[in-house]
Amino acid sequence: MGKILEIEGLHLQFGGVKALDNVSYYIEEGEIFSLIGPNGAGKTSMLNCISGLYQPTEGSILFKGQELTSLKPYKRTSLGIARAFQNIALFAHMSVLDNIKLGRHALMDSGLFSGGLYVGKASKEEIVHREKVEEVIEFLELQDIRNVPVGKLPYGLQKRVEVGRALALEPELILLDEPMAGMNSSEKDMMARMILDMHELKGMTVVLIEHDLGVVMNLSHHIAVLDFGKQIGFGTPEEIQKNPAVIKAYIGEEAI
């Protein structure tokens, strides 16, 4: 398959604070890759750099061999990168369907879905994009709540809609920032299954930030570990579990 994302010597600094300090790793195409570490380790900052919300102080981010650091976020979206946020960024008054449709609009040549009467190219385009939105709703099992305003949904379902908005872009690389946060055990199991389906059925490369180490170790092909902005581990789940620096800084002595 080859490498889809390569991070090389990445630094991110805010004044005197080093959010990321010389971080380097790579992600293979089609794998589930996890970023772990304590709170404040720099995990979300890393996703912000990949998606274009932050500009690294120095270093390189290559997506399929193309340098990303000078590209605006929407350009990265058009290349095949999508992001679901840790803090839900949905429109609470809008329905599940409309929120996911908004996620799709970046791929449309004729603007947003309007629900109005179309002729010619615009109508054909809307039909195609609407079919893709319906596929996302079915994939995430949201059919029964498609017309419910997002603000009336429990938190776990809102997180699923947040992921759905990213999936609507049909990305090659999807960045999931704590998609299971605030979920109960059954909701976590369902989200884990959906992440596996993204990998196995849709062939997506998944980058996952998750604090549940059981989930991380079960799902991931490779893991990078950050601590105070520094990378202290990179490898398979088995290698990470045996890494002394990771055990000391994050997993804890009891994991030995």
Automatic annotation (TrEMBL):
Keywords: ATP-binding, Nucleotide-binding, Transport. The lineage of its organism: Bacteria, Bacillati, Bacillota, Bacilli, Bacillales. This is ABC transporter ATP-binding protein. It holds the Pfam family ABC_tran. InterPro entries: AAA+_ATPase, ABC_AA/LPS_Transport, ABC_transporter-like_ATP-bd, BCA_ABC_TP_C, P-loop_NTPase. Residues 5-253 form the ABC transporter domain. GO terms for molecular function: ATP binding. PROSITE patterns: ABC_TRANSPORTER_2 (PS50893). Transmembrane segments: none annotated. It comes from the Bacteria. CDD domains: ABC_Mj1267_LivG_branched.
